[in-house]
Amino acid sequence: MHLGDIIPKGEPQRAFRAKCRRLTDLVLRRFAHRVSGIEIDIEDLPMLWRHNCDLTALPDRSRASIVIAHDNAAKVGQTHFASRRRKIA
């Protein structure tokens, strides 16, 4: 996967999926992919999911988090970035 694949193109993101004519659900899932040479592993990243067609899409802020994680790792020369969600109380 390339960093350019993360950045949205075309229409603005919507919670409604036109193809199956249904709303997507907001879920927390693990994102573990190599993005432009950097292994990015983020637990509990918000994603939009449609169970009928098993579609998973990244909301804009989740995409931004991946881009920022990639940039931060690249700046310090790391080939791996990991983030674990901190549970509050």
How many structural domains are formed by the residues? 1
Task: Sum up the overall morphology in one term.
Answer: globular
Please describe the biggest sheet, giving its number of strands, its sense, and whether it closes into a barrel: 4 strands, mixed
Mean pLDDT across residues: 86
| Helical percentage | 10-25%
SSE order, as H and E? HEEEEEHE
Structural class estimated from helices and strands: alpha+beta
Poorly predicted runs are: none
Rounded to the nearest angstrom, the distance between the terminal CA atoms is 36 Å
Number of helices: 2
CATH topology: Ubiquitin-like (UB roll)
CATH second-level architecture: Roll
CATH first level: which class? Alpha Beta
Number of DSSP strand runs: 6
Rounded Rg: 14 Å
Question: What's the topology here?
Answer:
Elements: H1 3-6, E1 16-17, E2 22-23, E3 25-35, E4 38-50, E5 55-57, H2 60-75, E6 80-83
Parallel strand pairs: 4-6
Antiparallel strand pairs: 1-2, 3-4, 4-5
What can you see in these coordinates?
With 89 residues, this protein is an alpha+beta fold. It has a single domain (3-8, 15-78), classed as Ubiquitin-like (UB roll), CATH 3.10.20. Helix content is 22%, strand content 39%. It has 2 helices and 6 strands; from the N terminus they run H-E-E-E-E-E-H-E. It has helices spanning 3-6, 60-75, and strands at 16-17, 22-23, 25-35, 38-50, 55-57, 80-83. Strands 3, 4, 5 and 6 form a 4-stranded mixed β-sheet that branches. Strand 1 and strand 2 (22-23) form a beta hairpin. The protein is globular.
